[in-house]
Amino acid sequence: MKKVLDLLLHLDDHKHDALGHVFLDPGDEQETYRRLREYLGPKVVVKAAEVDGPRLRVRVELPDFQTESDNLVRLARELTASKRPHAAVDQLREALKIFQLNGAALKGLGRASYEQAEFGEATTFFIRANEILREDGEALRALGAIALQEGREASALAYYQRAVQANPDDEIAAEALLALRDQIARRFDTEPSTTPGRTTKPPSRPRGR
């Protein structure tokens, strides 16, 4: 059995890697497919790819072991709840070996990496999860928190904006976006943005639901 997935890649996540070329020169289909294969891995077959402004829509096919992979993700959540984080991470990595485009497993590894202050790894995990889940509010909020932690305010602002667009009910992302906008406004001696009935809080670190 094969599993077909539609991925959504964003230029902002690939400005400084090999995939950035795909957005700049989408006319070379052979080169686009080659770079996507390198990025996604040998088990993933690229069936179609189309650049749509700052986004790259990709249809892929891979062996369908998602159910087995999801079972390991559920086990990892139970281990996390039982205060066994290392065992949980092991199960998440096994889940990806079975089905490498498991968005939930990637988000779990992103959270674990963030908790260990491994921000580079966490960023990679959250970006990949977000591409599979097609603009996932939690992953985008986490990327915003990491960017802010690293002092990349412009990137943080963009990620928080995308997080709110993906999930308008995400109050954590909305508060973080408001706080960052106010921080930037104060620096330039402009009037801070306000939202009636809402208080400003510092941006929150990534956390699961």
In short:
By secondary structure, the chain is of the alpha+beta class. 57% of the residues lie in helices and 12% in strands.
Description:
With 209 residues, the protein is α+β, with helices and mostly antiparallel strands. It is 57% helix and 12% strand. The chain contains nine helices and three strands, in the order E-H-H-E-E-H-H-H-H-H-H-H. The protein has helices at residues 20-24, 29-40, 66-81, 85-98, 103-115, 119-133, 137-149, 153-166, 171-187; strands at 2-10, 45-52, 55-63. The protein has a three-stranded antiparallel sheet. Helix 4 packs antiparallel against helix 5 (103-115) and helix 6 runs antiparallel to helix 7.
Q: What Rg is obtained from the alpha carbons, in whole angstroms?
A: 18 Å
Strand content: 5-15%
Total strands: 3
Unreliable stretches (pLDDT < 50, length at least 5) are 195-200
Q: Please provide the ordered H/E string of secondary-structure elements.
A: EHHEEHHHHHHH
* Secondary structure tally, helices: 9
The end-to-end span amounts to: 31 Å
Shape: globular
Question: Would you tell me the structural class of the helices and strands?
Answer: alpha+beta
